[in-house]
Amino acid sequence: MHKYQIISPDGFPIGYGETYKTKEEAEQAFDTWKQRYTQQGYYSSNKGRIPLDELRYHCELITIS
Predict the structure, then answer these.
(1) How far apart are the C-alpha atoms of 17 and 38, rounded to whole Å?
(2) C-alpha distance from residue 38 to each of 2, 8, 27, 51 (Å)
(3) Model confidence over 30-58: pLDDT tens digits?
(4) Sorting pLDDT into bands at 50, 70 and 90, what band is 15?
């Protein structure tokens, strides 16, 4: 059975390393994680500021077997 994780633009797993049973659960966790940055309006990365509407394109969904 596979598990999934989303990696932030800085290379760290979101959700403090939690894994998710489905891709849908991982995407829902991403949406919750992204809400933490709503007030400032962007995600501050080592690569610079990333607008929230572009943040998902800078993250990676990985499969853990």
Answers:
(1) 22
(2) 31, 16, 17, 10
(3) 999 999 999 999 999 998 999 999 999 99
(4) confident
First and final C-alpha spacing in the chain: 7
- Extents of the domains making up the chain: 3-64
**18/3 Cα distance (integer angstroms):** 10
Buried b (16+ CB within 10 A) or exposed e, 20-54: beeeeebeebbeebbeeeeeeeebeeeeeebeeee
Rounded to whole angstroms, the Cα distance separating 28 from 9 reads 17
